[in-house]
Specification:
Four copies of one chain form a homotetramer. Chain A is of the alpha/beta class. The first copy, chain A, is 30% helix and 27% strand.
Chain lengths: 358, 358, 358, 358
């Protein structure tokens, strides 16, 4: 396969490092406007080709696909050009900067029958997949709420706020684990250093089944925090991504409501305190798995785990969060997603596939 | 002095334990409707008197004051009776269940020239006072935001939600440290076990000087968390009340904005990473200090640190938070507080005193 | 029952607090040469009697027993007087300052058919009993080694070194859990502040079944550490007594030796990394359980869990450690213990009893 | 420069990775008996040459030096051949398997005026250099003791025990920071899996100035521990290499001895509890610095920081520890080192140089 990575700034080099090691790729092209970045890539990986103008890639007939790691607002125009030319496209999260552009890419990819994948890296981690299976097995009981904190000092983005930068990880994890989409979003935050670019915010996702999810995002916290708490009616789970050895802890704790009570005075909960269990999590680089998955989907004509629709859902929620920030934290409905029907089915290779595909 | 404690349930016994050890008290009366609780108190502290009906206390001419640790909604009616009879009154936080009742108690105490104190215990801790002095010395620079988490499993309250139960600690700490009152509040939460009694919530305090404060409160978290992060323009501070040895850490970290920049591309922050410092915090029981402060204020005719007005401010914010919860997280203004002028001045004993007092 | 506590310095008041709350005691006497200490006890617990000269206790015919919490070198002479007069005796750890004196007390108690108990508090904790049952159930496989650290800043003892002060806890835990007695001891340490009083030391217990135990004791560590690691052939366990919530963690980790190998080059271990499990530990005050146990043994004529023989074993090991310290760390055999036959049997009340007792 | 790395097993690839990135090297040769390892190196770094027989290197006239990362017992014969041929030599720690062979290499390097460097990586870390400067500035006061723990599960070595594998790090850190050499060593340990290969041990270094150092080494601990505690008369320091953000903590704690005291009863220490300070530690890869240092020493004819004499000192201590293990923990003197006079002086390039060199 012949693949190009567009954007060699902060994240692109990580994609390049993984693609370089893949046996599925014969030719890898690194593309960036900045010649210094290209030179650094060439030095690190002498086998790669470098190119400053991505437009030249579009005309390459043997190019299979591109991975786009440019500033968020350029995702849509670049991806559109490649999809239109029948190339497979991988885009770093968030997919695009708006619901409409994201939807357009999803539709274009389906029409052209090409892979559109978004870099929701956490969906490829062993920890998140473990949590998904724990939740689906009912070990936690009915899910009551999820609380996420993702914070550290930096790095400020110049074109998107902290919600668009950090919350896509949490939102994609939540959507991936629980499947269902929230009905509305609240977000409250503040821009201290650059007008219009919030550097700290708290976002709430509201579900119609009683679940609520809290997402705290900060570029200004002295400590690096990556923690997700999932509270279920039977057990509680904490996923701490900083923790080297005990990333996931399951607490056999909970509240039990008595079957009935007559008067207010009788009203009594009972609390259950029990053992704590930390399952072993396999150790691998999720980005490697993600990159290989993109290549495998191209080869098999399959729909990726984190496909365009998955990216669209995250962008829709981010857009509603931005609107809530402008409205002083008021609840903003997420439209359109609940009624959309996915058109994919399993293609027999263990992957989902668009039903209209070959 | 002769003092009575009304309510010997969860918190009352802690007050009793401290009052028993005080040299300022000659007679201590424990009052509760439940005879079992009274018996337990009598067994633990044979020197106390016990009483089931608090009404009898009102008629005792030599009673100096009462400490009220009953369910929140009974604070107002009980306190009102004692203030009206010219008794000094201590009330567990929150002061009352509404702004109007709290304001009425504040006015009544001023009119009767009696002490009205609220049990904002954290204002008496060495850690919070250390943070206050660090903030006031400008060590952190301009304050950008505060983020508080107060969570653990239990204890559910039957008459108030988790915001009224846990957030008063955070709100009183924030008000105490920063002095100023927020202009509006947002709150988002969910009641999973008992209708109308939210068990998890996130509350945001908005200030007109750009500061924002986030308060996460939960009765359903597997871990006990008591953490306050104060982010300043020069340094950042984390106060972790669970940590036995390093309760406060000051991080010499921050973001520096360049003096000017012409184009968007030039826009660059610089980050400062530096030493971490953990000041030694004196070790004492804050509740003992709080109880002694109440007795000292009675003796000196002084206004307590956590006076009725302090309690009123917290209740006003809680009431706005409750309203925001009902309105789906929308911003709710806090009214009346900014225009209120405190009428206290220093009485020369190192305490503030109402100006109209002798 | 009528009980006296002799010594109201550092530890005595903890015994007094627990005895005061016991329903089994009608009269409690506090005894100390220092009138200030006695006054403090009288203030805290008005119901106790105070006495400066312990000799007067010996003549009290209705006194059932004494608890001795005086400096270590006075344990033996005081205890001997009371046992000789037929009183039941509890002694704080270590039992005495030498093997010979400890053995004499054990024999005297047996002869007089009185309870002789030593304050090995950790044998009464839920955590240590949990570990004992885990080890006995074979969950850890064959035990390979134990490593203990007990360190913090202070408190210096004036008459005993850090090994005699801190290691009795670790030694009694190890003896209690594993039952068997080591064959020899090494100890290396240093006295930095007071000649002959080592303030830091590492002690090794050698067993004839291949087990080895390391005990690091320090009065000069900046952090409070109370950690015991038990490494078994199947699983490993860490007991961290400072940890509030996860005191015990069981690691499903280990080394597996292949069944056979021909050449050195073929020699390969395989490692097993698995889940981590933290069992819930019941929360109670072990000292309360210990004090009640002493009283119950008196009532039932039973042999305590931590009886005189248990105290003797610890003292024998401490004495060998002292000798090793003098010999520059050389191995010193522990004599006499292996050949001693315990003469106790179950008395039908769930307690062991000396066979010669009624 | 032309450099060869001999041994591409566990550690060699780390050296290769750093040499590949060095601008000082034109030709890099990887040498190993195992063709699979060579193939892996060639795949990772296409620019390197590979070679199976190291003997061929000796004859290369333009080869500047070799880095030896083979099993410990082969260090001496291989290094000797290269030094004899006038090649510069870097050897992974420990330098050799015995004092005599180490001394022979040191003398041979001096005679041939070639660089002999040992891979004591920690001497090149920012943390250890920070501690060295803190100790030398007297911030900790007089050093009383050092306590080191280095433990985790695996990796077993087949030819050396856990002391020879892990303790060289601790010993080289201690020697580097404090300069002086201990006079004797005790070591106690046990081989549970392979006869003669201890997998857990505690080693004590005794100094004639009153300092004592404890080193606990284990291949069988469920947790990865890398902790060094340095206790001084004025302050205490903990270096935790696992901690990502606060590797070094300085505790303003200590014991103060009163100036004089008459009687035993008067004898009282006072304790000082103060702030905790964690200096920021620069973040770089120490191995890169170490590799560059080797190349710089070759270029400048300079003596490395961790030179052959440094390696010899560590080996002498390890040999004494092995002897103590055989003697059941008895103290074993370290001979010869105190009387050896280093013959190096500063060569004006900021490096020490053998005085006999040009």
């Amino acid at each position: 396969m012949k693949i190009a990575v567009i954007g060699c700034g902060y994240w692109g080099p990580n994609l390049i490092r993984n693609f370089v090691q893949s046996h599925k790729i014969q030719e890898l092209i690194c593309c960036d406007l900045d010649p210094n970045r290209l030179e650094r890539m060439k030095n690190l990986y002498p086998s790669v080709e470098v190119l400053s103008d991505y437009k030249k890639l579009i005309e390459m007939p043997d190019l299979d696909g591109v991975a786009i790691a440019t500033p968020v607002k350029t995702h849509y125009p670049i991806a559109k050009e490649f999809l239109a030319q029948g190339k497979h496209v991988f885009i770093e999260k968030p997919l695009t900067h708006s619901h409409d552009t994201a939807l357009e890419l999803v539709k274009l990819a389906e029409e052209k029958e090409k892979v559109l994948m978004v870099g929701h890296t956490f969906e490829y981690t062993a920890a998140v997949n473990k949590i998904k299976s724990i939740v689906e097995n009912g070990e936690l009981g009915k899910i009551l709420y999820i609380s996420c904190i993702r914070a550290n000092l930096g790095l400020f983005q110049s074109d998107i706020n902290v919600v668009w930068d950090l919350a896509p990880h949490d939102i994609s994890i939540i959507l991936y684990i629980f499947g269902i989409t929230p009905i509305s979003v609240n977000s409250q935050g503040k821009a201290h250093f650059k007008d219009g670019i919030e550097d700290v915010a708290t976002t709430t996702l509201n579900y119609d089944n009683g679940v609520i999810a809290f997402i705290h995002s900060s570029w200004l916290d002295p400590n690096k925090i990556r923690r997700t708490t999932v509270v279920g009616s039977r057990r509680m789970l904490v996923y701490d991504d900083i923790e080297p050895q005990e990333k996931i802890k399951i607490y056999d704790k909970g509240v039990e409501v008595p079957p009935y009570y007559d008067t207010f005075a009788e009203f009594q909960f009972s609390y259950r305190y029990g053992d704590i269990h930390s399952p072993r999590i396999e150790d691998y680089e999720p980005l490697k798995k993600e990159c290989e998955h993109f290549l495998a989907c191209i080869q098999k004509g399959a729909c990726p785990l984190s496909d365009g629709y998955s990216g669209l859902r995250v962008v829709s929620i981010l857009e509603a969060a931005s609107r809530s920030l402008q409205l002083g934290g008021r609840s903003v409905a997420i439209q359109g997603l609940k009624s959309m029907k996915r058109k994919f089915k399993n293609n027999g290779n263990g992957f989902l596939m668009a039903s209209s595909w070959k």
